[in-house]
Specification:
heterodimer, A: alpha+beta, 6-stranded antiparallel sheet, 3 helices, 7 strands, B: alpha+beta, 2 domains, 5-stranded antiparallel sheet, 5 helices, 20% helix, 19% strand, elongated
């Protein structure tokens, strides 16, 4: 099973996309399993700019529908999980260090800290 | 059916937006009935701080989606605040709560949406339904949409001609688009007869990405941010009368208007 992560941010260029190695994939599932459900309405990302991180699997059953992680919330189908301090979002972004230019990663980290 | 709620509170930043669930939508519509809230067109009421909410019916495929402007209706405002509170920054939620506690606000009076005249005979009709499908939406970007060509290649300026941009700067992307057949122009006021194309606009998130808008037959502009849905509102949820002045998020640099048409080849 291959786990793909997409940084959903661009309009003209293709979004940065990378795969998780097996250790990172295991860590992802552990982190997801530790999250608790939260309630409330769904926060809609803007059209232009950072719209979150998408997690998909190409050939495995562990991720049935794409997972979106955006501004401290994990959206998994109709389920909604809290990501306190945006810890999972930050960690997942860091796994894309080879795919996401460092200036963009820095700008996103600053945005994460500001909100 | 789903409803998109916008909290009109910021001036510089994007206003917070969220989607209400189907169950909540029923509650909302019942409250609208009770409060005799008129249907309106979304827009900023001007001023600073909390100005009210707007609620859009995002499933409508007409150029003018159903929109309710919610201000001066305490029950509805409190309801909408409660539904979005979990996602709002605490100081923002507190500010809105304080404003609601202080009493009814002046009704949000949206400026009428005045689309500029469209003087291009070939301008496309705003019809997001053909773009917002699983087979089309992920594989076609802003450049596809502006040129009204579904290629399923996430088209890039200049790729079809072997002159793809090499830097994410206006001065580099514009010539790449020109090589595809687009022509720069100073504004979107000049009459374009049949076969002469329609107006598009190029903007830049300097050194990071580019973005395109197109002027539709109705006169206002629409766009498709990357692999997301085509839409006719800006980052504030407002109709776009001119891409030069709308809320473009990080795409702060306006490059140029251009003319595209059926002669253009993109890939």
């Amino acid at each position: 099973m291959t786990i793909f992560v997409t940084l959903d941010i661009f309009s003209g260029r293709p979004n940065p996309r990378w795969t998780l190695d097996s250790a990172a994939a295991s860590s992802l599932f552990k982190r997801l399993a530790a999250l608790v459900t939260e309630s409330g309405s769904r926060l809609e990302p803007p059209g232009l700019g950072y719209r979150g991180l998408l997690v998909e699997s190409e050939d495995g059953p562990r991720i049935e529908t794409p997972i979106r992680i955006y501004r401290g919330t994990v959206y998994r189908g109709i389920a909604r999980l809290a990501d306190p301090g945006r810890a999972l979002e930050r960690w997942l972004l860091a796994t894309g260090k080879d795919a996401v230019p460092s200036e963009l990663r820095d700008a996103l980290r600053a945005e994460f800290d500001a909100r | 059916m789903s409803l998109l709620v916008t909290l009109h509170v910021f001036s510089g930043r994007e206003n917070p937006r969220w989607v209400v669930s189907a169950d909540e939508e029923k509650e909302f519509r019942a409250m609208v009935e009770r409060s005799k809230l008129p249907e309106a067109v979304a827009g900023s009421g001007g001023g600073l701080g909390y100005q009210g909410f707007s609620v859009e019916d995002t499933d409508a495929e007409t150029p003018s989606r159903r929109v309710w402007s919610v201000a001066g209706a305490p029950e509805l405002e409190q309801y909408l605040l409660e539904k979005g509170k979990a996602d709002l920054e605490a100081p923002v939620a507190a500010h809105v709560q304080e404003m609601l506690r202080a009493g009814p606000q002046q009704p949000l009076v949206p400026p009428p949406v005045k689309c500029p005249p469209c003087v291009a005979a070939d301008a496309p009709v705003y019809n997001p339904a053909i773009w917002n499908t699983p087979a089309v939406q992920p594989h076609n970007n802003c450049y596809n949409y502006a040129n009204n060509q579904i290629t399923n290649t996430f088209a890039q300026p200049g790729r079809a001609t072997g002159h793809m941009y090499t830097q994410l700067q206006c001065a580099n992307v514009e010539p790449a688009a020109h090589s595809d057949g687009l022509n720069p122009c100073p504004n979107f006021a000049g009459h374009l007869g049949p076969g002469k194309g329609w107006y598009v606009a190029l903007v830049m998130w300097p050194n990071v990405d580019y973005h395109w808008y197109r002027q539709d037959k109705v006169g206002c502009w629409s766009h498709k941010p990357g692999s997301t849905a085509a839409r006719n509102v800006d980052n504030s949820g407002h109709p776009i009368s001119d891409p030069k002045t709308c809320n473009r998020g990080n795409y702060t640099q306006f490059c140029t208007y251009m003319i595209t048409g059926k002669w253009v080849h993109i890939r």
